[in-house]
Amino acid sequence: MQETDPRIGGKIQRLRRQGRISQAQLAGSLGISASYLNLIEHNRRRMTVPLLLKTASYFGVDAGELAENDDSRLAGDLMELFGDDLFADSEVTNQDVRDLATSNPQIGRAIVHLFDRFRALRGAGTGVTSAAEAGYHVATDAVSDFLQLNSNHFPSLEAQAERIRAEIDQLSDSFEQGLKLYLFNVFGLQWRPGALPLGLAGRLSKDHEIFETADVLPPETAIFAASHRLGLLATAREIDWLIEVGSLPADAPALARHALAAYFAGALIMPYEPFLRACKETRYDIDRIARRFNSSFEQVCHRMTTLQRPGLSGIPLHLIRTDIAGNISKRFSLSGIHIPRHSGACPRWNVYAAFLHPGQINVQVSQMPEGQRYFCIAKSLTKGGHRHNAPRRYLSIGLGCHISHAQDMVYSDGIDVSNPAQAVPIGVGCRICPRLDCGQRAHPPAEHRLQLNEDEQAESLYSRI
């Protein structure tokens, strides 16, 4: 009997957990034993095509979508890891890494987490014997992995947001006013603007009766902060459950709680079905959608990445946020493009070029070394500075999809996305990028030894090695 690719166990497990379905319940519906389902979820048994179709039907998803494997991001993280100088004398190849990600993904993830800890200890200096002594904080990467493993979609939070939004809309024609009334009527919390210290967006009073948002915030930011506070109050049980089943490390739940409350806030302000409809009607025109939902550019981009409801999904997107120094503060990818875990991304990527044209949307067809092409947009933003002499933050938001979905985005108009000559060659990072003819190299590839030709002087030291 024909069998499918074996690497989809994690996706089945996530769908089951999102629906709060036990292994026994799912196994019974599929006509298999719970032990066999457990082996499938851990990628130790292949799925027959009939079983794949039956599973897809159970969850209400397309069989092709379910069959897509989750190995590419893990393989990319491992390639970045083995590009470190620590492994300079090893003979690990990219194919070895792909084989590991395919055959033993759990071991691969364990290696990534172990290396995370090693880097923190190494950075803390010598004489350190534990991660705690090094002040190591695993929360950021752990929560990023948690969102990625759940495809940045949480049905229980969506359901709560839809229920509460319906109640808010009954209180007032204005969402802002309805939100104020709901917070007060249900939780006895008064939301109002206040003169908060520099750097604070919101603050809860000691008696938990007043929530102030900084009076210098743009309206959409203040509303999001209040919606975030509502998320912490109204969905505490759902958030705690998601964190519990997420198996997060000890220091990650606080950040995960913040991220999940922000997810709820986005879902409350931009309800799923109206928002997805707006995306399709405008072909993902971010500025138009932001006006429709009284939201910011970044809020809309984030919400676009969450549209993964089975049978009612949007374009599989990736999102990256970086500062002007190249530090990546947010990363998520359903498009298939790999975003670096430990280092800055490729300087050829338009998420960096966007800083040269503030406020404008920069469009790029990006091609990875393996040949995959992606349609990417980026825009630089300025945050803060709403009072005299206040410091400002300069960030760039990158959003994109696989080239096959480019025509679904309005930004592709006038661009021949089918022409390979339009593509800009990019990589994940210099240490693991095989392009030897790149004039913007900051480091030689990890698998090459530096051999300079003293008779020739290249424009870039590492562009010809």
Q: Could you tell me the radius of gyration in angstroms?
A: 23 Å
Strand order of the largest sheet: 7-6-10-9-8-11
The structure class reads: alpha+beta
Instruction: Please write the string of helix (H) and strand (E) elements.
Output: HHHHHHHHHHHEEEHHHHHHEEEEHEEEE
Shape: globular
Helix content: 40-55%
Largest sheet: 6 strands, mixed
Average pLDDT for all residues: 85
How many H/I helices?
Answer: 18
Span of the ends, CA to CA? 50 Å
Number of strands: 11
Strand content: 5-15%
Low-confidence runs (pLDDT<50, min 5 residues)? 1-6, 126-136
Describe this structure in words.
- With 465 residues, the protein is α+β, with helices and mostly antiparallel strands.
- It contains 18 helices and eleven strands.
- It has helices spanning 9-18, 23-30, 34-41, 49-59, 63-67, 71-82, 94-103, 105-123, 139-149, 155-171, 175-187, 219-234, 236-245, 253-269, 272-282, 286-292, 297-304, 350-353, and strands at 190-194, 202-204, 210-214, 308-309, 312-313, 317-323, 328-333, 362-367, 373-384, 392-402, 423-425.
- Strands 7-6-10-9-8-11 form a six-stranded mixed β-sheet. A three-stranded mixed β-sheet has the order 1-3-2.
- α9 (139-149) crosses α14 and α11 (175-187) runs parallel beside α12 (219-234).
- It starts with 8 loop residues before the first helix and ends in a 40-residue tail after the last strand.
